[in-house]
Amino acid sequence: DIQMTQSPSTLSASVGDRVTITCRASQSISTWLAWYQQKPGKAPNLLIYTASSLESGVPSRFSGSGSGTEFTLTISSLQPDDFATYYCQHYYSYPWTFGQGTKVEIK
Amino acid sequence: QLQLQESGPGLVKPSETLSLTCTVSGGSISSSSFYWGWIRQPPGKGLEWIGTIYYNGRPYYNPSLKSRVTLSLDTSKNQFSLRLNSVTAADTAVYYCARRPVGDGYTFNQWGQGTLVIVSS
């Protein structure tokens, strides 16, 4: 299985901050990577697919980059609604796997 | 607007079979445009892909669960289902059903709200 490792596990930030989350794959996955946002008690919500494509309806302050084994999710200016947990997920081959999550907390 | 809704028992006894159904509204599960999947999340933990079933009924399973899991489609009811047998406390989780568009580059872009299943005697 391809292992996905996110860093940091927890991130404390303020409204307006630029935030970057990293996801590393244990082997190359090309750009078959997605990012999800999850709020407590809710299902994950797709933000980014194919590493850098913005899902319809997602604010443009979210962006993704990377290829191969290293990827980043950037929030250009953190908003109150963005405090949540973020997961990366590869879909290069079965079994699909997720990172362990990064919780973005209010500083 | 397509919607997915999980349903099934919220409590299952150890060694028994967990059975969940996902009802799809606003679209057909027979459509060749989508695949259908299940993902679970133990309380306070991360996400685990369980499996995906294609519109033609072909399933793909997570090897960690493959010996215990079965996915199926019921086109007459516009539903797809998950069966997980010989459950233990480790199978306690919120179970989500989700939709994935067909084609390269696509992953789960629409999810049900999730249903909590507790395995306990």
How would you describe what is shown here?
Chain A is mainly β and 107 residues long. Helix content of chain A is 0%, strand content 50%. In chain A, the strands form two sheets. In chain A, strands 2, 4, 5, 6, 9, 10 and 11 form a seven-stranded mixed sheet that branches. Chain B has 121 residues and is an all-beta fold. Chain B contains no helices and eleven strands. In chain B, strand 7 and strand 8 form a beta hairpin. The model of chain B has no long low-confidence stretch (mean pLDDT 96). The interface between A and B is medium-sized, with 24 and 19 residues.
The 3D shape of chain A can be described as globular
Low-confidence stretches of chain B: none
- Sketch the major β-sheet of chain A: 7 strands, mixed
Poorly predicted tracts of residues of chain A: none
| Average pLDDT for all residues of chain B | 96
**Span of the ends, CA to CA of chain B:** 39 Å
Structural class of chain A: mainly beta
How are helices and strands ordered from N to C of chain B? EEEEEEEEEEE
* Average pLDDT figure of chain A: 97
Most extensive chain interface and residues per partner: A-B, 24 and 19 residues
Main structural class of chain B: mainly beta
Main sheet record of chain B: 7 strands, mixed
Rounded Rg of chain B: 14 Å
Helical amount of chain A: under 10%
